Structure formats: C-alpha cells, structure tokens
Amino acid sequence: xxxxxxxxxxxxxxxxxxxxxxxxxxxxxxxxxxxxxxxxxxxxxxxxxxxxxxxxxxxxxxxxxxxxxxxxxxxxxxxxxxxxxxxxxxxxxxxxxxxxxxxxxxxxxxxxxxxxxxxxxxxxxxxxxxxxxxxxxxxxxxxxxxxxxxxxxxxxxxxxxxxxxxxxxxxxxxxxxxxxxxxxxxxxxxxxxxxxxxxxxxxxxxxxxxxxxxxxxxxxxxxxxxxxxxxxxxxxxxxxxxxxxxxxxxxxxxxxxxxxxxxxxxxxxxxxxxxxxxxxxxxxxxxxxxxxxxxxxxxxxxxxxxxxxxxxxxxxxxxxxxxxxxxxxxxxxxxxxxxxxxxxxxxxxxxxxxxxxxxxxxxxxxxxxxxxxxxxxxxxxxxxxxxxxxxxxxxxxxxxxxxxxxxxxxxxxxxxxxxxxxxxxxxxxxxxxxxxxxxxxxxxxxxxxxxxxxxxxxxxxxxxx
Amino acid sequence: xxxxxxxxxxxxxxxxxxxxxxxxxxxxxxxxxxxxxxxxxxxxxxxxxxxxxxxxxxxxxxxxxxxxxxxxxxxxxxxxxxxxxxxxxxxxxxxxxxxxxxxxxxxxxxxxxxxxxxxxxxxxxxxxxxxxxxxxxxxxxxxxxxxxxxxxxxxxxxxxxxxxxxxxxxxxxxxxxxxxxxxxxxxxxxxxxxxxxxxxxxxxxxxxxxxxxxxxxxxxxxxxxxxxxxxxxxxxxxxxxxxxxxxxxxxxxxxxxxxxxxxxxxxxxxxxxxxxxxxxxxxxxxxxxxxxxxxxxxxxxxxxxxxxxxxxxxxxxxxxxxxxxxxxxxxxxxxxxxxxxxxxxxxxxxxxxxxxxxxxxxxxxxxxxxxxxxxxxxxxxxxxxxxxxxxxxxxxxxxxxxxxxxxxxxxxxxxxxxxxxxxxxxxxxxxxxxxxxxxxxxxxxxxxxxxxxxxxxxxxxxxxxxxxxxxxxxxxxxxxxxxxxxxxxxxxxxxxxxxxxxxxxxxxxxxxxxxxxxxxxxxxxxxxxxxxxxxxxxxxxxxxxxxxxxxxxxxxxxxxxxxxxxxxxxxxxxxxxxxxxxxxxxxxxxxxxxxxxxxxxxxxxxxxxxxxxxxxxxxxxxxxxxxxxxxxxxxxxxxxxxxxxxxxxxxxxxxxxxxxxxxxxxxxxxxxxxxxxxxxxxxxxxxxxxxxxxxxxxxxxxxxxxxxxxxxxxxxxxxxxxxxxxxxxxxxxxxx
Lengths: 465, 736
Ligand SMILES: Cc1cc2nc3c(=O)[nH]c(=O)nc-3n(C[C@H](O)[C@H](O)[C@H](O)COP(=O)(O)OP(=O)(O)OC[C@H]3O[C@@H](n4cnc5c(N)ncnc54)[C@H](O)[C@@H]3O)c2cc1C
Ligand code: FES
Ligand code: FES
What we know:
Chain B: It is an enzyme of class 1 (oxidoreductase). Chain B: It holds the Pfam family Ald_Xan_dh_C. The complex is a heterodimer. Chain A is an alpha+beta fold. Chain A has 18 helices and 20 strands. In chain B, the strands form eight sheets. Chain B has a seven-stranded mixed beta sheet with strand order 4-6-2-13-10-11-12, sandwiched between helices. Chain B has a five-stranded mixed beta sheet with strand order 1-27-21-22-23, covered by helices on one side. The longest helix of chain B is centred in the last third of the chain and has 24 residues, at 515-538. Chains A and B meet through helix 1, helix 2, helix 3, helix 4 and helix 6 of A and helix 1, helix 3, strand 29, helix 15 and helix 17 of B. The complex binds flavin-adenine dinucleotide and FE2/S2 (inorganic) cluster (2 copies).
C-alpha cells in the first residue's frame, strides 16, 4: 500500500499524503501541530529537533535529528516526541530532573535535551561522565552552560524507569509515491539493484544526514530517492578472521563496538562524528558517497587499506577506498551502483594505527585537519607507513613523500615532516584555520603519531574532559 | 512608589521565599514542550498563512528592478509585499537600518520582500521566484581600514560622553616609570539564541496584534506603531515565552514587521520566522572593536595614568560599542581618559549583545591589567587590590553603593588554589598539555529604570501578577512570583505570574541586567498598594498588619487573606520610580573569574579545565536561577575567548559563517567544571529589593581570564580574540 506506516507516541499512523522529501520536523510541527519539538537550525547542528526512534526490529531507542530526517525514513519505526514522553501523566524522570535541577532556562533547547536523555534512560544506559558527554554532544544550549543539564542527567538515573510500551511497527519497506515523487526502500540487495536500474534519475540515500540538509536547510525538494536502510544484506557489521566488514547501510552507531575493539583510535574518532543523533542514522557509505575533503572516516579507511565492494546489475567490483575517491566530492561510483560493503583488514601484530581529529571545538565540529596513520614497525624503525590526511587538499589523500621518506630514512625524516607534507599538499586558508596552521599542525601530528606508536603500550589518547 | 532614599527594613527582608533556591515555576512547561513560543501559537488566531522573507543579496546599493510576477502566479501565493506596495513606513526609534529595505539597500540580507502563501513550502518556493536586479555600490566593510575615519558618536541615554578625562593623562603616562601601551581586538559576535526570531500578526480592523519573541514589550509596541504610522493604542504585543534573546530581541525586527505587512496585504493572519541562515545578517550583532589601552604605574604598583580608547563601526546613524566605559570606574588613578570612536561600516546592524560595552571592554582591559601586573612583578590579584577604589575615580565625592571586588578576588583565590600557581609562563607541563591559570575582574553597572506591575487578589486567596516584563530564560516568572509571595505572605503556589503582554503595565523589560531588580521592585510597589487595600478592607491598620501564612494579622486578630476578596477581586497597580540615588552613588556589580586551561603542545588545542566565578551583586533573589545565569554567561564568555567570531567577507560585505555550523558556540564538551560563589550583599541604594543584576556580570571578564590562563600556560600573549589554534600554534614553545 502506498503509505508510510509508523507508530507515533504509541499510536499507529499511516501517512499517504505528504511529499516524500518532507522532513519529520516539518511533519510533526506543521502537519500534526505537535510543537513541543523545536526548530533551531534545520541542519542537524543544534539538537532542538531531537526525537527518539525505535528502528524496525530494534528495542533500542535512538535519538535522531528530525529536521534532516525524511518522513519515509520513519516507515516501520516507532517514534516518540516530547509530547509522548509523559503525556498528561506525571513528568518522566528526565523531565523532572531537568526542571528541578535548573537544566532549563529559556527552554527552547529543552525538548531536544529531554529526548536525548529519554533515549539513554529508557535503554538503561549508565550515566557515567563519558556517556553523558556522548549523549549531550548533539544538543546545543546557549543559556545554561550545560552543567545543570549534566547534573540533571545524573539525577535522572537515580529515578526509576518508566514503562513505555512501544514497539516498532513491522519490517520497514516502502515504495512511497506521491505526485510523481517517490521514496523506495527495498528490503534486499537484488531489489535495490533492480530499483536503481529502473530509476536512473534516483539518488541513493543512507541515513540522509548529508542529503537531508538539502531538504531541511536548503528546503529543496528531493523527488526521487532510493533508500538502503532496510536492505537486509547491507545492514550487518561482521567480524571475520581477517577483516571487519561494514555493510553498505550500516550506521556509525552500528559499527562502533567492533571499531572500538579492533581500531580504538578509529572508534574514538567515530565517536566524535557529529553527535549521537547523526551517528544513529549516518552511514559509512554515506560518508564515502559524499566524498567531502573533511569527511572523517575517509583518511582512516584509506590508511587502513580498506576496500569497497560496489554492486550493480553488471555484478560487483571491488576497489581500494583510496582509488574510489576521485576528487572534491567526486567518487568512482557508476550509475546503477551502490556501495554494498566496506571491508577493513585487521591490523597485524607489527602494525599500529593512529588517528587525530583537530577542530575548533571539541564536538559537533567540522575538522580543520584530520590525520590517520598505519605504521608497520620493524626493528626500531618503520618498515611501512600509510599516512592519509583530510582538510589538507580537495579530498582525503595520502602523503606519499612523507610515507616514502619515513620508510627510507626512518624516524629522522620527522625533522622534515613539514617540508615533506608541503610536497604533497597545498592546504587552503579559511575561517577555520589558516594554511600555515594546517601545515604545522599536520607535521606535529606526524610527530605525535611517532611518540604514540613507539611508546610501548600506553597510547596518548584523545582526552575527554 | 518613589524610591529616593535608601531602603530600610521591609517585608522582603523576611526572606521566607526570596533568597531561597527555588525551582523555576515554568520548568515543567519547558521540559514537557508545552510552553508556547511565538511561531507555534496555532491557537491564538485561526487561518494563519505563512510569510517567507526575501533578503538582499548585496550589502549596499539599490534595487534597479524587482519582478514578482512569477512569484505571484506560483501556487498558494496570497500576497507579496515589497517597499513598492508596503505603503509609507517610518523607521523605528531603536532600529538603525530599515526593517524593510528597498529601493535603497543598507546591508546584506536586509529584508526586501515578504511572500505570503497558504503553506510554508509554497511561500518559500515562491520567494525563490522573485527576480531582483541590483545596482551595487562600493561599501566599507573592514573596521581596521575605516578606523582612521571614525568620529566621536553622539551621546545617548546609555552611553555617557564619547570623551572623558580627569587629571593629566598624557603627562602622567609619559612620566610613569612602568608603562603599557597595547592594542586589543574583539571580533563581531552573534547572539545565536536558540529560538530564531518569529512573529504571528493579525489585524482586526485597524488594531494589530503581534505574538512575538521580544525582550522589551513597550519599546516594541512603540516601534511597531511608529514604523507603521498607527497609534500605539492600536498595537498589542504578546511574548510570554522567549527562546533566548541576549540582546538580539531587544528591538522589533523584520519578522514582526513583515508579518504585520503580510497580514495586512493578505487580509488574514500571517506568521514569519527568520530562517537560521538569514538571521545573522538580517538582525543585529555585537560589533567588533579595536581597543588601545595605556596604563602607567609607579614602581610600587599604583596606577598613575589609565587610558582606554575604542573604535567600532556601524551603519550610518548607528551607535558605538562602548568598550571603554568600565575603565572610567574600575580602577583608581588620578589621571585618566577614555575615548569612543565610531566608523561608518556597511555591515549588518551592530547593536547590544549581553553586557554591551563591558563584555568586549573587559576582554581587553583585563588582559592589559595582567600584562601590567607582570611588568610590575606583582601578582595580578595584588595589583588589582592595590588599585581598588571605593569611589568613582572621576568624581571622588560619589561613593560606590557597594563594592566588594577585592573580596571576590581573595575568596576566589582561596577557593581556586591560586597560591599554588606558578607565575612563570610556560612552566607547567602535564603530559601533552601546557597548564596555566588566569584571573580577571568582572564588572558591570547596575541600571535603574521605572517598572510597573498590577497585582490582583481573588476570593481563593490567589495572587496574580501582571506586568509586561519578559522572561528570556533568566527566571523572571519565578522571582516575580517569589516577590509577590513574600509580600503577600502566601506560598509560591498561590501566585500566578503573567508576563509579556503589552496590555499589562509597562515594566523595565529584559535587558542590561536591569530586569530582575527593577521588575521585582515594581511588583513590590504594587504589592505595597495591595497590602494597603487588603488591610483597609479587613479593617486593619496597614502599618501594623502582618501578612503571613495566607492570613493577615495584627495583635491577636487574624483573618485569612482570601477573605478580603471574597465578594470582589482587589486590584492594585503601581510602579517603582527612582530618584537620584544612582547619581549620588555609583551602583555596580563586581566579581572575579578564575580559569585553568590546558593547551596541547603539538596542536595548540585549548581545553578549559576549571572555571570559578565569585560575584558580589546585591541580594540574590533566587540563588538557583542566579547561579544558572552566571554559569551560562561564563560559557558564553568562554565561547568569545576561544571560538566565536563572525567572519567578514571584506569584498561583498557580509558575515560568511551565518549558521550554527559556521558560527561555533561552545558545546557541552568544551565546558569543564564550573562553580559560582555569591558573596553576601544587600544594597539598600539599588531598590527596596536590595538586589542588583547578575546575568551580564557573569560574562564580563571571563574572556580575559581565559586569555590570561593561556598566557600563563604557554607564554603566548594573544591580543586578538578569539584565541584560535592558529594564533597560538606558531608561537608555542618548542617541546621535545
Ligand atoms: C550536524 C552534522 C554533523 C556532521 N558531522 C560530521 C563529522 O563530524 N564528520 C563527518 O565526516 N561527517 C559529518 N557529517 C556528515 C554526514 O553525517 C556524514 O557524511 C555521513 O556519513 C553521511 O551518511 P548518510 O548515510 O547520512 O548519507 P546520505 O545523506 O544518506 O548520503 C550521502 C551521499 O552518499 C550517497 N550514498 C549513501 N549511501 C550510499 C551507498 N550505499 N552507496 C553509494 N552511495 C551512497 C548518497 O547518494 C549521497 O550522495 C555531519 C552531518 C551533520 C548534519
Ligand atoms: S533543528 Fe537544529 S538540529 Fe534540527
Ligand atoms: S535553555 Fe535556552 S538554549 Fe538551552
């Protein structure tokens, strides 16, 4: 049937009238007049629009930015807005804690914070400092200075859990059409490939955390979309003997446990991509598909020697991520193709991996420079180095000169790091960072990597304050 | 009520409700998402249409032609208003540029049209079809380049004279054995309150109602009336909940005017919200400053000469950022001068943002004090203590009503562990971090302004307060409720507070940290009248009557308060009006900020590690909300120190980073442990409440405390805010 089916605040809903690229925020505020959810930016930056969802088949609440999520993405989900947290009954523990702990001032950010905290609370996650830090990264508040919110967050855990009897509706799959516009969400790979072949004008969409900006921020109409979100074969993240396999529809959140285990530095970096709201929906494939020069996973995937498997009606082909990225927002994806898998080789005992993200503020920020290194250590010197940088050129790119010199001259090449990088990169100046800063900091990160990979054991980890 | 002699003991001093840490009475409305903000008030009037603003794509010049044909023909479009068909519009007294531009364009994203349609999507789509041909003219966009053409601005009610002097600054500075002469800069800042400006307007005949988000209701009514050329009686503004303002909503902005014009043209109610990416260039911002500070001192550390000059820019007819004003009052020194200069810039309108003047002024002055202390070989706290003054240094016959700056510093030093600090810059290293601490004074004046309220008592003993005062997140609902509860002897639950409606008595409004003291003093005045009326009704002598426990008592007779209003509600209205106590005494608030930072040795990333503010700001009416105000202000100050900066496109004349992705404000992870201490203080000179403001004090000086801590950590003195990684990295000491 041509409708989007989901559960909203406990009640089943079927929506068959709205244009497919309507954002969830516009839908709930303007169409349903559920105005508790706020619009602060319409681009995923402030979290005022946060709602919580249960994806099809999942029992875990996830916070998402409704301003860049499209209504058809809700198909099969259960969604709770701030109105559905306590209804007319007593306040939910997080609402109570925020009200009593002065975690709200002007209150405009508050429903977003409530929903971020609601998801954590309902999942029974611990509210240790690290989790709170992670949870709040995607919610901006200009009034409170955050401390009262953090305290409220801790206070809420002490209070009992509230039964919210929700379940996702059913397996998500839609073929939603309205006025010639459509949003197709196939449930397996052959169907996806067929849909791509039949609709050459359509765009692939993963979590829509990039594409959704066009609908939210730019208010563009996206007439033809094919979603990967429900493709069964593409959702898994697997630990195989020699590789970590990330499905083409796997979100950052899906992959984090395995990344944390096998490539802690990569995991730590992914924890700093956007916010929980972004990581609940955003995919690795989308990050590759966008091919932004500051896409955070790209230098890491390149340095780790990851490859992508591209599927289409013509069959499938595999290539290195490094070769897949062709230029500024340009990839080797051919019409009718989809990234079906990303495969990351596991590190050998002699290999170390380090990654650094430098940004003006700690979270929710576009990188100024991103550096990732895979180093094979021989007898006190590197025998193989792959160094990839973001923010230094029109795309994520390897520093070939640096790699060669490090292997040929050993660590003494560090003295020339800046010059060697200059041979590979001519970074831009913008308001985030000058060209000079980028050059110096990139060289310093090479030195930091040296300290880290040669210091036995204790890595100099990114600090969480 | 006239307040012209210092307050004596009054019912507020009972402190049964006032002064207690009290939960915000509007907290549950906010955490459940039921507090209604302007744009979502679907219930106030039927049949609302949507307006979408078209903003100018040039910074300066004129519109050669504007073609609305295609837009008009687009589906759902109800009306399009431009300067051509808007009718005669004046400019509001508080606006520098017109809210609807054309044919002349004064700044980038100045509104030049509003397209009204059935749905938001239709309005927006049609707005994209408006075709405009511009004739751009050359503008001036760079303060540094325009500085030499700057002139002394005209003085206004808030500014004081552009030039001030006492003694012989030039002579004393030249003769001083220890001198500092340094230039500091602060960039343009954006308020970026979380709620974008939004309004719904509806006409009923010639009467106009605007549901909006505005800090100063009476100013707004006046300016809407003036702009549209209609009588003030015909305008009603209603703004019960405001998603933050910070000065950005002191004035009527284009959303309100466009909604009113759109509603008139479409013949039905219209709502307009400014999209986030249009807000920063369409509305106001805190202007950038260039500041030169000269301090001369004797070797013993006594300041003999202090001079502060400041330059800022604004559109023609605009105002200066008064960054030198605090320097007239903060430290002793017989020879002194300040000079304020204003250049014409064609950037969007500069105007007030949280602690206008002092916020950027203290960012500079308090680095200068740190530099001077170092030159003198003095501890920065000792240096400030040495130069403390209990009188207005320009007019020694005027004492400060209260001044506990040194106490704030000393108590803060003890709490923060200042004595453990290593004064030698760049000498503390912890792993990958340089570590340092810094201090700065906080200072902000306390302003007195008339404020009125109405109080009603009904037969159930409920006290209702009505005033056009606003709550922009500051906690006004609660402190006004506490004031009425204290005065009438009822629990807080028995008080209903209604704010933000222009049909209520005119209050001080929310701005300049004057809201709390003045608006509660206005409620105090009205309650005094209500007490008299109640006493009379119940046959008590109002001098003797005690209002407590929801009863009125004198001798051994006690009557329930509700009894007085059993047959008929009792209504009292009054205002607090001030005499010349603020002329006889200087009224200011003081504080000290302490900050510890870590600076990454390889990347120059700065991490705040600890922040402490100690404040002396009169009676603290609600320690809970006051603390939040200060913590929020410290956070904004930290943002100004480390990241906030509107980047100017110097060729095209607009702010490039005009959204929340580009204009970074602190996120949770940027902000470390923060603490606030309020010193015991009551200031009987300020009002019967004996309170002063705190909301802006908290931001004044924080930036410098961060800068000073970074200097202590690294030995790198950055005088150009924000202190970004690239300004630090190239100067960092070499490390192994
Ligand atoms: C607030 C905010 C913060 C952000 N922070 C970061 C950050 O810190 N670091 C960072 O790197 N990025 C960040 N992003 C960008 C974005 O979240 C990532 O790029 C994310 O990986 C995109 O994934 P997606 O699934 O949402 O992509 P989508 O928006 O769905 O798609 C993006 C592109 O990829 C294509 N695509 C999607 N799936 C496939 C597939 N399977 N095969 C081929 N092509 C495909 C799409 O056609 C589209 O062109 C942020 C975005 C926002 C809004
Ligand atoms: S509205 Fe700001 S993140 Fe959605
Ligand atoms: S309370 Fe105002 S933005 Fe958070």
